[in-house]
Inverse folding.
């Protein structure tokens, strides 16, 4: 415990040992390890979260390098969750990090045992899967936080937090709310969302990702044992199925991710203080 105590010395100095004990005990699951989810995961582990499940189906693409934590020119082609897990264990080797290369969808909701978590974080891009996750997650005991669209953003001062139904100026949030209404579904409890009302336009052309000129390896001759656990995802990628690829930047996606991590920490802190006052 010596090294672990040292890692979180400055955090404990701010929050106190009682709050740190509460942080250590929380279980968190993150769906989507892109520009938002990857930075959120790092912030949580650096803040003391020790029980963390990472869910993403993708491999690192060369076009991820500009904004995703685990994406470097050396990790292109590797499974995202495995690369990120290894990095997080370098930060805290005592953490229990579970990497699941998988796609969240309604049909496999039970696989993730959502009711066993204290916090569920949605950083999914797929509109249908995002809706299903939020619907199921708000029916558990967990506190749920969600990221709205982080692409086409530049101005850090316009990144905000609001309850899902009060998010304004975000096309993804609007489309998601319309989808809930069409399917006559609703969230069972409030979900705080990180979003921005800025909406820039792409000024360049997409010439690689999701096209025949894509620079990333999709199928390789050799695969690790971990990769073969989900062999059907060896050649999987999302880009070619997207209606449009939008530009993104590291500072915007990272602020989204750090903000969600901050919401988790603030929630743990406030609840720990409330329990202490009641004792």
């Amino acid at each position: 415990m010596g090294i672990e105590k040292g890692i979180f010395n400055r955090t404990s100095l701010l929050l106190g040992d009682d709050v740190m004990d509460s942080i250590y005990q929380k279980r968190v699951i993150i769906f989507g390890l892109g520009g938002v989810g990857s930075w959120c995961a790092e912030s949580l582990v650096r803040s003391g979260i020790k029980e963390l499940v990472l869910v993403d189906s993708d491999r690192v693409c060369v076009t991820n390098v500009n904004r995703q934590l685990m994406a470097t020119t050396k990790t292109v082609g590797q499974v995202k969750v495995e690369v990120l897990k290894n990095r997080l264990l370098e930060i805290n080797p005592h953490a229990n990090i579970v990497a699941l290369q998988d796609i969240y969808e309604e049909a496999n909701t039970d696989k993730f045992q959502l009711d066993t978590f204290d916090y569920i974080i949605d950083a999914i891009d797929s509109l249908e899967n995002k809706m299903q996750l939020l619907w199921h997650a708000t029916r558990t005991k967990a506190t749920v936080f969600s990221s709205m669209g982080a692409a086409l953003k530049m101005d850090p001062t316009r990144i905000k937090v609001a309850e899902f139904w009060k998010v304004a100026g975000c096309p993804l949030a609007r489309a998601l709310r319309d989808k809930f209404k069409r399917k006559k579904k609703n969230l069972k409890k409030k979900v705080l969302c990180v979003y921005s009302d800025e909406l820039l336009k792409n000024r360049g052309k997409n010439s690689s990702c999701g096209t025949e000129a894509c620079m990333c390896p999709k199928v390789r001759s050799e695969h690790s044992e971990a990769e073969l656990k989900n062999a059907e995802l060896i050649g999987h990628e999302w880009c070619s199925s997207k209606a449009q690829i939008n530009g993104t930047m590291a500072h915007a996606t990272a602020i989204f991710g750090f903000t969600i991590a901050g919401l988790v920490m603030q929630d743990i802190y406030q609840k720990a203080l409330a329990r202490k006052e009641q004792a």
Summary: The radius of gyration is 19 Å.
